[in-house]
Amino acid sequence: MQNGSPYYPVLPLLLASILLLAALIVPKLRRWPLWVGAVTAIAAFGALTFLVQKAIVSPLMPHFSAASSGQRFWEQLIEASWWWAAARVVIYLSRLVVVLENRPRETRIVSDLVAGAISVATLLAIINFAFEVPIRGLLATSGVIAIVLGLALQSTLSDVFSGIAVGLERPYSAGDLLWVEGGIEGNVVQINWRSTQIMTGDNNIAIVPNSIIAKARLINRSTPTPIRSSTVTVVLEAAASMERSLRILTAAARSCRVMLAHPLPAIACTEIRGDGTVWEIGFSVASSSTLAAARTELLTQLHRHLRHAGIALAVTGLATPAVVKPPTLSQLLAQSDLFGVVAETEREQLIPYFELKFMAPGDILIQQGDIGDAMFLIMSGTAEVTVAAPAGPRVVHRMSPGESLGAIGLINGSPSPATATAVTEMQAYRIGRAELSAAIKQNPKMAGALEELARRGQAALRREAEAFEQSEPVQPEMFLGRLRNLLHALGS
What we know:
alpha+beta, SH3 type barrels, Alpha-Beta Plaits, 4 domains, five-stranded antiparallel β-sheet, elongated, disordered N terminus
């Protein structure tokens, strides 16, 4: 024994044991950052190396006590613990290199692989140095066992090594929206050694083995950007003019707000058949979460615009489908949220005072800040409602066929809170202050009908007010009072 005293190594062995217990217990108290664990492991390894050298001279060439089997076993445990501490330092350093703090979880596969290899090498070193057991025979035996286990666990090992390949290649990360060949699509929630877990749109967890992931076609919809593109196909009657169909489909797509305005929707005729023409409308959305809403909005606007244009959808095998007639002004007024509350006789008396206006893209229907003197009932096309902002005009609404605008300004006689501009070619019925005055003079009972409009048409008027986000809310009594003042001024 060192220094000629059999009791001299007891103190270093005791201190080393206390140090090892602390190294085992302290990391369990809380979750430390990776760099703190690495620094702690290095410091503990340095202190343990000093104590081991005092106890058994050298951890690589140990001199164990021969006087007491208990003390010898204690020294062997400390020697084994030194190798464990060395492996712990190497594992921490490798994880600092391979996986950084707050990186996606799947990169831990690589660090776990490195840690496993280090642990196996450490176990062999402990057997050889601490317990002085030759490892050549053990290595030969373990090779045979490894072959047997490899054959028995072939499927599992395939998943494991595929997981390693996925971790190295990193085609996707936790949180990415992933499509897997076979119809599985959803957000990746976890990647482990054996499988990838995907949360589908139905809030179910699909567990896909990594061996299948490695062989299947994948589409990562989150890279390089989360922007998602899609198409909607519509087949129109063969008799519809190609130019007019393109114009109506463009207006329908431009009236949608969920899809991105840039790039603009792309519309193309892909096929001409005897029973119809096939059109594809391509569009983009900010993320996959809004794709369903965008498709629903587009289909709704397509139905609205085609119906108001009198263009029918094709019927397979039928060259001439049922004729769809565009609504007349009388039908537009009856279907309008605003004029639908007016009695039919009064609506019919208003028809001669509406004038059909044709507008090109960019024409202004209502200018922000101008006093409202007319209202419009859209027949076809799309109008965009914008408000001035420091960064440029901000879109607050888009108007489609069958909708009306300008009623608030006409009734209030106040400056318009927003600008309405034709986005596409438009047809709209216009009635101004002068025409309304003429209608009241021609039929004084019209004043009562319009007063009933203000009383019962508040929902429609509020919807128009919501389109002008900066306008102040107006109470029904204020609408009614202002309308009475207007009718009095028009009738005088």
